[in-house]
Amino acid sequence: MSETNPAATAPVSADAAPHRYTAAMAAEIEARWQDFWDAEGTYAAPNPKGDLAGDPELVARPKKFIMDMFPYPSGAGLHVGHPLGYIATDVFARFQRMTGHNVLHTLGFDAFGLPAEQYAVQTGTHPRVSTEANMENMKSQLRRLGLGHDKRRSFATIDPEYYKWTQWIFLQIFDSWYDDEAKKARPIAELVAQFEAGERAVPGGRTWSALTEAERADVLGEYRLAYASDAPVNWCPGLGTVLANEEVTADGRSERGNFPVFKSKLRQWNMRITAYADRLLDDLDQLDWPEAIKLQQRNWIGRSEGARVDFPIDGERITVFTTRPDTLFGATYMVLAPEHPLVEKFTPDAWPEGTRDAWTGGHATPAEAVAAYRAQAASKSDVERQAEAKDKTGVFIGAYATNPVNGERVPVFIADYVLMGYGTGAIMAVPAGDQRDFEFARAFELPIRCIVEPTDGRGTDTSTWEDAFASYDAKIMNSANDAVSLDGLPVVEAKERITEWLERTGAGEGTVNFRLRDWLFSRQRYWGEPFPIVYDEDGIAHPLPASMLPLELPEVEDYSPRTFDPDDADTRPETPLSRNADWVNVTLDLGDGPKKYRRETNTMPNWAGSCWYELRYLDPHNGERLVDPEIEQYWMGPREGLPHGGVDLYVGGAEHAVLHLLYARFWSKVLFDLGHVSSAEPFHKLFNQGMIQAYVYRDSRGIAVPAAEVEERDGAYYYQGEKVSRLLGKMGKSLKNAVTPDEICAEYGADTLRLYEMAMGPLDVSRPWDTRAVVGQFRLLQRLWRNVVDENTGELSVVDVAEADIDADTLRALHKAVDGVRQDLEGMRFNTAIAKVTELNNHLTKAGGPVPRSVAERLVLLVAPLAPHVAEELWRKLGHESSVVHEDFPVADPAYVVDETVTCVVQIKGKVKARLEVAPSISDDDLEKAALADEKVVAALGGAGIRKVIVRAPKLVNIVPA
Question: Element (H or E) spanning 671, and its range?
């Protein structure tokens, strides 16, 4: 660190108190110290090796890796709600530095994505140009807050040297498969070796050598962790792209743009995240995450135990998954999802004889009925299809399957309440035990067979039932064939017996199912990472060698994918990259001579870059490998209390529970399995900050009006003379209630903004913004300044006093504050830490006279993590040459933390009658005697006898009169 003292260059202002802490002084101090920190590399966190190695003493300390969730550089810039988490992690990181840790804290930018592309479409500005401008604006805003980031480690996902490694990771996933026996990913070459050696049977019974190259590619595609397939997708014509399930709202519209979303079948890249479902579930137990987030992930993964059952049909079979195989005897029909791939296969040319009119939907042929119903179902979201509507719809496909337990022919329908995305996309319908099946059976006049003995008195005649009867406690009935009987058995035992029979007869097997679906990884967009994949003349996908990475985005004239009528479900994607023929069609030598290839013209989703960015922070300039193993082990490796390793603290919004967090965990586990990292989890501790809200004011039309121009009169609110409504909600530009950090910094200074945001309430709860209340923290800083600096002369006002000569009350106030603030900062209770600092500062103000230097120094050190600029300034004024950033945090003397006396409340019949000042160590007997002898207690009892005395020393005595 430099020995220069920038405090010596501070200019003198000229008002009534020329050295008073003002907004102008705050601005000057803050800018000067920010320049100093940047120039000196104050926040540089040394690595144990590599180009960021340095300061062995720091490397030898315990380490802390503290991260914020990736920000997206919006053109609108920051409002005061955005920095809440960034300030919190900065306070915590500063505290960790002062308590002896080597702290890695930095911030990059998640810069690919739809907003920049949409702006490019509207204006013709290249997405990189607008994105980089937005990043510079955001960097400037964040710098003004005094955030202590190691700027050497910052990057953006759009940097080719960054997405080179995003592409490289994709290739590792593409060239891997999940070995169910080893419970881990392995290189695809090892699977090929098993096929070649005959150690693993080739699907279809042929030998590996007998397969063509295309056939081998198809076989491997069924195993690869990254694979392309024709599958049902969420197609959004209005955006011209497909969406992941998580990007579709509950009402079946796109999260961005609010366009209709339809089910369609397209060839897309997918990630086989389902292979990791069990591990993603099990490892949650070892993570220090909010239980609400863990629950959301568990529910999203959706593990359920049951059985797969095969229903024979036309010499083939329809497979269903059921959690209740014990109800098989009650299955009287089947339902397939409308998009199920077997529907066309089993749909005949004509209706079977005797088909009921209610089953056909009024169509002349099964094919017509199926086509019409599919079109109807495609316009509904999954949520709408699953809604508990009483009117169930569907059509008979004209085919019958066979129930394997009793040989009965059961009609096969398609209906929108069955989803292709869960189970096998087919169900055995047991209308007696499932309400949706019950309503469907009633609507289509299908049999309802009672197979679970009702316990609610309704009887077994289902024609009298008004709803289904489902129970895990009742006994099974009407469920027997020549080989197996479930009658009289409880559910658990019945499930075991029928599963055993299914496996013995080859009609099914016990299995585990998951709600989780494979991750759709393609986007029909320009502004995203290109896939490092090319196709040969036979359509076989080939990975690019690492030496050809990064595959950079080409220049294009038109950034927009082709969009369509938002309501036209029959359209298909056309990507911007596909229009650049010179880039798409290339001649490459992939190891067997120059050949012509066609590039993949989809791009990766915006989630790709954020799946691994914690690793790039560790080793940001490594061009030879993803991350140096020793560096990764140092910052993220497993250790005591962190069995899977990971970032020590990760702070961000709860809205990413089943998107970014699940995807990042998947990538981390694949990289761990392949030996590239030592950490099987990316983030050990997760903290979700709340939201800063603001009042939204709307006129009679419901249109938001500028909040800053609204006047309050007699409890009502007016804008330009018109009464408006007020409701607490989000803060944002569109709601005209955004307050920028720049405004607050200009009026009060960044340290005031930092204090106010941290003092508003517990970090994990939402809280309303009130600009008028900001001044309270500004006044705290002014009082702090006055306790150290003479406002008239600018000289120190502290006095040099030996610790033994400081009055006891001040020492108690000091050490209680030190103890409390230390505990609060460790627990991220920043609001209560500020309250304790305020209490100490007020004590010193009220005490009058000069503040002892040693007390002032410890007060400044307490403030340093929270308000670093003013702390740095005062620390230098107090005569120190080193930065306060790396000073030791104060330690409390236990002798002064313990109260000399505490207040004991004495109650009679639950009402407070007296308060006693007693020693903290007083015994129950002594406290009881003192309470009964108190004059106020004696008077209140009035000579009445005492039935019972309850003592909770040292703070409570409760007397119950006779």
Answer: helix 660-673
